[in-house]
Design brief:
By secondary structure, the chain is mainly alpha-helical. It has 10 helices and 3 strands.
């Protein structure tokens, strides 16, 4: 299922990239999450949004803003997704992934209710996978890349530390983003926070007894 999600998401991006710029923008607005579409229904009707359609909380998961956005998300899904899927099975993992993404979208909506900017990306759903991985494999080792000027330096970190640090960065950045739109840097920080917490909470209903804890996992981090 992890590979299927990567394949489908990549195929959707190819379609986005091949579309005319105006059509690509229309896709982002109609199938991405535009919070003001739901918090200001009169405005939404005036600009032509369909009424009472909540599919964007799912479809936005499969859209991406650019090649780097896609590659970074699919890289993280490839690294951590298969181990979590091993403990859930493919169809449970799919449900878990989508629910984490929906939860991430809802948190983004609650924290950016008046935004008219479409939000797209799988990072909220993947954050749920990271939250589950932290609980399931806290003693796994994550190989991390630190760039010292132009010299790559690889070292290992416990998954618990690596993912807790990652979550802390999202939480602090999301708090800073509340100070004003100029602080967000175009990143839906609260969607990441919401997805991660959702993954931790939802895990108990999706886990099975199958799968063994791996000795290590591989990830790339850059500073």
């Amino acid at each position: 299922m992890t590979w299927s999600l990567i394949a489908v998401t990549s195929a959707v991006f190819v379609y986005q990239a091949a579309a005319h710029s105006e059509h690509a923008q229309q896709i982002a607005y109609l199938f991405g999450i535009v919070p003001a579409r739901y918090s200001h229904p009169a405005w939404a009707l005036s600009v032509g949004f369909p009424v009472d359609r909540y599919w964007p909380f799912v479809t936005s998961i499969f859209l991406h803003a650019g090649p780097l956005h896609l590659v970074s998300n699919m890289w993280m899904l490839w690294i951590f997704g298969d181990n979590v899927e091993d403990r859930m099975g493919p169809w449970r993992f799919l449900g878990f992934y989508l629910l984490s993404g929906v939860a991430a979208g809802l948190v983004h909506f609650w924290t950016n209710a008046h935004s008219v900017v479409p939000t797209v990306g799988a990072s909220g759903a993947i954050a749920g996978v990271l939250g589950a991985y932290m609980i399931l494999y806290p003693h796994a080792r994550v190989v991390t890349l630190l760039l010292l000027v132009f010299w790559p330096f690889f070292f290992e970190l416990p998954a618990l530390f690596f993912l807790f640090y990652w979550f802390g960065i999202q939480l602090l950045s999301g708090t800073a983003a509340l100070l004003g739109p100029e602080q967000t840097g175009g990143v839906a920080w609260w969607a990441h926070v919401g997805g991660f917490v959702a993954g931790v909470i939802l895990l108990r209903w999706f886990i099975t007894d199958r799968g063994a804890v791996p000795a290590r996992a591989f990830a790339r981090g850059e500073r």
